[in-house]
């Protein structure tokens, strides 16, 4: 072997050693090193500089050896695995562990209570995972992340934060010693922003995948990309009621395990089974739930009860009602996501004698011990996109069959159980099998906004389980551009600074845009109230048989200029009655008196509190009252804020109640609007509802010029009637401002120079300099004028044209010496900068196109002497006169 071959052979040996060491190393270090190796050997660097290549490879090799030593330390310190008895998933333990070792993806579809959330992370440890990186286990809710981490740590006999840690928003209970890290799905997505390939983890468990939230769909798509780049990564997808076929197809038919959950039978009783229950009006599910608890307490053997309610406000009111019953040996416990952790833990520590009233936070993940009875209202707050308003709202809607089965599965763990559904069996059978994925019931503007913020790329190319339609994606980008959240670049769309702030608010983009505008204009509280009511169904009822009476009673809230202010009037009246307490007994009477839905009023209070909590979290706060609002007119401030979110919903009046929208459609004011008596010229509407015709619903008067102020990126400018203003010394024009096909400002007199400098320059040269239309003296202009007059006299004398240069030459003379100048102020500044006006003075030779012989010109004297007196001669060449 020659001398030249030795360095190359040495490099090959180092490379082979690195390839051998790499799979044994800790993942984060190994991943970085692997990337270096790929880059190094993909280039010609080894051939050009073998010594440098050898030094780099030795550095990589040393890093890997240190990493392997640390990994072996983790293997030795791995916690001893202890599995509790009696959990159904443990019957499949060996098969699941074997599948994790042999396959990149494993799906576990386990019924509620089977133990999957707490035991699968330990099975991953048993399969050798957690050594080259942590095991990440995601949960949709913070409460579940905390309680599951605590339960696993307890079962492993270690303090929380050692082998097992958790990470949620504002709380990080992790350490380098962790093998298992429980976290919210949103937290793992946030980590992916800083580390796109999630190199901290060698295994990812996505729990409760059936919920199909945006976060879960983002994570499953991200993991599909990761598996292509990281063959050593393992992914476990778990759920109680998963659409197995969809997930199997997405991940190339991985092994699937189906695990039963209940240990005892569960009897299902429907609405009609409750003897005391009679059909109630809409929204009386709280009454029915209280009756159902009464029924269980009076007619069933003792046992813990779990009641499912759709909202926090419902929970608090139900708890208050149940506490008034004073059941013996029963503690009433609320449970919802925003409760302090120490209060949430009470439901797990109290062994018996409890009635837990919870949102669907209790539907999944950790099972509450001791539950024998479930009372299911069949309702939940489920996010939903409203195409009419373009708002992503949170209405209370019936749950799917799968969710109902999840709730049923909360009992039957300790003894035979009973699930009492507060709706008829036919209603259950007519419900969809699964809750549609959030991506299919979302405004894609919100999806795109979050994807851009998380750096997940183009939604059209992202591997979603259910792909959004191209039309929906285009509409989403259009909406975000309209809101000023994105701008188009050569490589695609990117977030603006405003868009980044909007992405930090987990709200519909239209609402977040309104709220950020309201912060600037000093009307945050008022706009938050309006944003909350736009997120729910209209609380005003109008029964057909009593429509006139409802209109008469509700007229007290109406504002003749704005339906948005009508909502503020209703809010003030409601606050005066219930002082912000949804459980106030006065609220129902107030609702009955004015034909209002008490359920929707409670929703309004709840959503407002949620919005204010989100704003506080982002340090967006109402300005103190002593500070003057940026808009002194509060009406203008509120409606400019609303307009910023709904600029595409503006309309101009054509006749009576008929308006023209920006896209040329005809729309009519909603029949219940307070604006009908005196329809304003321009309105903005929260909804454009299509029935037999297009209606503008929830509308308010605006000034059309506000569109330019809040959405300058959307308006188009045109200019007519250019003229030179001698007194102002500038070119001016009539400016017209339009949004789509609506003229929002007409014939506004403006300075034209900044709008179109080349065009203004031409007008300035012709009118100001060539026609001498100036209001102040310029010596060069006077000198040039006299010289031009003198030369023009030659044409008059000789009685022929084409002696003097055409006006275009004079235009070019000035234009070439005054580039970009379009007003007198700029002209003076240029002369001052040069130091004199000599560069603007014409010479006689500049003016002759064909200079005549001087001898011929001498035959035409300028004066004539008669009788000793000189008389000036003036020549005029005017054929035909």
Structure description:
By secondary structure, the protein is of the alpha/beta class. It is built from 33 helices and 30 strands. An eight-stranded mixed sheet has the order 4-3-5-2-6-7-1-8, with helices on both faces. A hairpin with a 4-residue loop joins β15 (384-386) and β16 (391-393). The longest helix has 28 residues, at 50-77. It is flat and about 145 Å long. It starts with a helix and ends in a 9-residue tail after the last strand. Residues 273-283 and 625-629 have low confidence and may be disordered.
List the helices and strands and how they pair.
Elements: H1 5-21, H2 27-42, H3 45-48, H4 50-77, H5 93-102, E1 105-110, H6 116-126, E2 134-139, H7 142-156, E3 164-168, E4 171-173, E5 180-184, H8 185-194, E6 201-206, H9 214-229, E7 234-239, H10 244-250, E8 256-259, E9 266-269, H11 285-299, E10 304-308, H12 312-325, E11 331-335, H13 341-344, H14 346-349, E12 354-358, E13 371-376, E14 379-381, E15 384-386, E16 391-393, E17 396-398, H15 401-408, E18 417-421, H16 425-429, H17 444-454, H18 470-482, E19 486-489, E20 492-495, H19 497-503, H20 509-521, H21 524-534, H22 547-554, H23 563-578, H24 585-593, H25 598-617, H26 634-645, E21 650-655, E22 658-661, E23 666-669, E24 682-690, E25 694-701, H27 706-710, E26 716-725, E27 730-739, E28 742-751, H28 757-770, H29 779-798, H30 807-817, H31 824-834, H32 844-847, H33 854-858, E29 863-866, E30 869-872
Parallel strand pairs: 1-7, 1-8, 2-5, 2-6, 3-5, 6-7, 9-18, 10-12, 10-13, 11-12, 13-18, 23-25
Antiparallel strand pairs: 3-4, 14-17, 15-16, 19-20, 21-22, 21-24, 22-23, 24-25, 26-27, 27-28, 29-30
Helix pairs in contact: 1-4, 2-4, 6-7, 8-9, 11-12, 17-18, 17-19, 19-20, 20-21, 20-26, 21-23, 21-25, 28-30
């Amino acid at each position: 072997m020659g001398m030249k071959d030795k360095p190359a052979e040495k490099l090959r040996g180092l490379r082979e050693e690195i390839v051998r060491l790499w799979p044994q190393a800790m993942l984060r270090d190994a991943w970085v090193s692997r990337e270096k190796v790929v880059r190094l050997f993909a280039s010609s660097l080894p051939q050009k500089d073998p010594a440098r290549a050898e030094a780099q490879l030795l550095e990589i090799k040393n890093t890997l050896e240190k990493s392997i030593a640390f990994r072996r330390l983790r293997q030795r310190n791995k916690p001893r695995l202890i599995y509790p008895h009696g959990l159904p998933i443990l019957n499949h333990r060996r098969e699941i562990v074997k599948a994790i070792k042999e396959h990149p993806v494993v799906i576990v579809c386990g019924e509620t209570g089977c133990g999957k959330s707490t035991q699968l992370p330990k099975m991953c440890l048993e399969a050798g995972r957690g050594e080259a990186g942590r095991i990440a286990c995601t949960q949709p809710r913070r409460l579940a992340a905390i309680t599951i981490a605590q339960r696993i740590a307890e079962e492993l006999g270690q303090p929380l934060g050692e082998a097992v840690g958790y990470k949620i928003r504002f709380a990080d209970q992790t350490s380098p010693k962790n093998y298992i890290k429980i976290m919210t799905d949103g937290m793992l997505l946030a980590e992916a922003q800083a580390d796109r390939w999630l190199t901290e983890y060698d295994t990812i468990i996505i729990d409760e995948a059936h919920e199909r939230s945006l976060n879960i769909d983002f994570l499953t798509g991200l993991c599909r990309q990761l598996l292509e780049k990281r063959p050593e990564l393992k992914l476990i997808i778990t759920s109680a009621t998963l659409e197995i076929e969809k997930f199997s197809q997405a991940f190339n038919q991985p092994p699937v395990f189906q695990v039963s959950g209940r240990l005892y039978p569960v009897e299902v009783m429907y609405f009609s089974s409750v003897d005391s229950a009679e059909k109630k009006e809409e929204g009386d599910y709280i009454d029915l739930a209280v009756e159902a608890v009464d029924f269980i307490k009076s007619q069933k053997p003792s046992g813990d009860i779990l009641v499912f309610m759709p909202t926090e406000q419902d929970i608090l009111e139900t708890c208050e009602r149940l506490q008034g019953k004073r059941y013996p040996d029963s503690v009433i416990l609320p449970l919802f996501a925003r409760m302090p952790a120490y209060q949430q833990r009470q439901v797990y520590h109290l062994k018996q004698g409890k009635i837990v009233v919870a949102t669907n936070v209790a539907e999944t993940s950790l099972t509450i011990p001791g539950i024998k009875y479930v009372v299911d209202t069949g309702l939940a707050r489920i996010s939903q996109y409203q195409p009419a308003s373009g708002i992503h709202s949170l209405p209370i809607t019936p749950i799917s069959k799968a969710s109902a089965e999840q709730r049923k599965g909360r009992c039957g763990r300790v003894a035979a159980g009973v699930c009492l559904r507060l709706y008829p069996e036919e209603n259950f059978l007519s419900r969809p099998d699964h809750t549609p994925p959030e991506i299919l019931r979302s405004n894609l503007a919100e999806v795109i906004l979050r994807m851009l913020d998380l750096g997940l790329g183009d939604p059209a190319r992202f591997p979603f389980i259910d792909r959004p339609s191209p039309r929906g994606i285009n509409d989403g980008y259009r909406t975000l551009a309209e809101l000023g959240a994105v701008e188009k670049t050569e490589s695609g769309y990117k977030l603006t600074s405003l868009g980044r702030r909007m992405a930090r608010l987990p709200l519909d983009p239209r609402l977040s845009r309104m709220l950020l505008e309201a912060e600037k204009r000093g009307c945050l509280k008022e706009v938050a109230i309006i944003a909350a009511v736009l997120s729910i169904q209209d609380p005003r009822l109008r029964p057909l048989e009593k429509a006139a009476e409802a209109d008469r009673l509700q007229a007290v809230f109406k504002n003749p200029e704005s339906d948005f202010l009508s909502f503020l009037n209703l809010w003030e009246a409601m606050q005066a009655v219930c002082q912000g307490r949804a459980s106030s007994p006065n609220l129902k009477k107030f609702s009955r008196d004015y034909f209002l839905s008490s359920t929707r009023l409670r929703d309004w209070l709840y959503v407002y509190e949620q919005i204010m909590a989100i704003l506080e979290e982002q340090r967006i706060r109402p300005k103190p009252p002593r500070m003057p609002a940026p808009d002194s007119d509060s009406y203008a401030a509120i409606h400019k804020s609303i307009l910023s979110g709904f600029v595409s919903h503006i309309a101009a009046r054509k006749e009576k109640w008929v308006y023209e929208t920006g896209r040329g459609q005809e729309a009519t004011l909603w029949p219940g609007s307070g604006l009908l008596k005196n329809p304003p010229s321009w309105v903005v509407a929260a909804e454009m509802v299509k029935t037999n015709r297009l209606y503008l619903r929830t509308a308010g008067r605006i000034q059309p010029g506000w569109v330019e102020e809040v959405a300058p990126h959307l308006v188009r400018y045109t200019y007519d009637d250019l003229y030179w203003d001698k007194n102002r010394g500038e070119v001016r024009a009539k400016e017209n401002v339009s949004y789509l096909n609506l003229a929002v400002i007409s014939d506004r007199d403006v300075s034209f120079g900044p709008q179109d400098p080349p065009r203004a320059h031409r007008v300035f040269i012709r009118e100001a300099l060539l026609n001498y239309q100036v209001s102040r003296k310029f010596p060069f202009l006077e000198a040039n004028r006299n010289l031009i007059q003198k030369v023009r006299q030659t044409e008059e004398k000789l009685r022929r044209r084409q002696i003097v240069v055409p006006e275009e030459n004079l235009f070019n003379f000035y234009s070439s010496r005054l580039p970009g100048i379009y007003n007198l102020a700029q002209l003076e500044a240029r002369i001052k900068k040069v130091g004199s006006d000599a560069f603007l003075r014409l010479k006689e030779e500049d003016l002759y196109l064909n200079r005549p012989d001087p001898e011929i010109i001498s035959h035409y004297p300028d004066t004539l002497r008669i009788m000793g007196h000189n008389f000036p001669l003036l020549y005029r060449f005017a054929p035909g006169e």
